Amino acid sequence: MESIFFFVVAAVAVLSSILVVTCKNPINSALSLVMTFFCLATFYVMLDAPFMAAIQVIVYAGAIMVLIIFVIMLLNVKTETVKRNTHAVLAGSVVGLFTLFLTVWFLIKGSMTGATGTMDKAQIISTGHVELIGTALFTDFLLPFEITSLLLLSAIVGAVILAKKKI
Amino acid sequence: MLALNNYLILSAILFAIGTIGVLTRRNAIVIFMCVEMMLNAVNLTFIAFSRYLGNIDGQVFVFFVMTVAAAEAAVGLALMIAFYNNRESIDVEDVNLMKL
Description:
- The structure holds 2 protein chains of 2 kinds.
- Chain A is mostly helical.
- Helices cover 78% and strands 0% of the residues of chain A.
- Chain A starts with a helix and ends in a 5-residue tail after the last helix.
- Chain B has a domain of 63 residues: Orthogonal Bundle (Helix Hairpins), CATH 1.10.287.3510.
- Helix content of chain B is 78%, strand content 0%.
- Chain B has 3 helices and no strands.
- In chain B, helix 1 runs antiparallel to helix 2.
- The radius of gyration of chain B is 17 Å and the shape is elongated.
- Chains A and B meet through helix 1, helix 2, helix 3, helix 4 and helix 6 of A and helix 1, helix 2 and helix 3 of B.
């Protein structure tokens, strides 16, 4: 049952991500990308990470995609009419497929033994996923968390400066 | 529970599709969306490994990746608006000031 559900959602995710690349109109690409993000949120729920699924939907499918669609409409981006350079498309596809081949090759050949932790499904249910993440974020990762706020501050300042009329 | 390799191969496929999009499209916003898709493929790998190896740290990393993606969205789209104001286009072929 779980594997049937996985393969159906995986097929939807792959199809919509192919649509992102092939659609001529950027708005269609953006809406397909939202579909891909929802499929990924489904996988996060299947992997017992409900908080990650929630922020995937809120931050990615909500905030970032609204920003992108807003810019597409603001700039009034037209559908691509110029014929694409077929050599460039061929070269790009070859490089992308080669990447896929290499990753799958390493997945099949490599061994996946490594560091293991103590988290299991019983602990996620008893402690709660949000509490587990919060504990890790505010103890082990406190310094990176604080640096993240600096990153966001510089991003806000950069966006305001760049979007000014005269640059 | 499903085998870990299912998630990893799906994530590899999404990453490869994103790579193809970045290399073949010329609309800067579509390239940007493909980069977001590659970031999401990596997030899926992080969460799958975190679940199967029983360590929460991978999900904290996904948190940071999402923060970086949000910052990148803000700055990248501001750059595109600035570029559009100068060139009336967001085709990457028009970014040719440093081309020989």
